[in-house]
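Quick one:
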Amino acid sequence: MTPFGERCRALRTTKKVSLRAMAAALEISPAYLSALENGHRGRPSRGLVRQICDYFGLIWDDAEAMQRLADLSHPRVTIDTAGLDPLATELANRLAERIGELDRATLAEILARISNP
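Output:
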């Protein structure tokens, strides 16, 4: 699941909207919406994010946060470390090797460390 998919599903659950009903309202297939929520599809387009924000009545900061989650939700990431310190390359490779073994608390700790300058 991606950050965008997690938030989208949480909004649907909170509003008690079925995946089929939301997909129909957005004029997309339920399979595509499910794939977005589960991280099996890449980032949604800005237009679709706007539609989803409108559907849930998200405005201003909430809509911007939803777009930011979409931007951070590509399930297959490529990290270009060319020209960076060799430690950056090592970090990227070690993270790629071990990310599946890290628990949620550890992931949150790492994310907090790199998100706050």
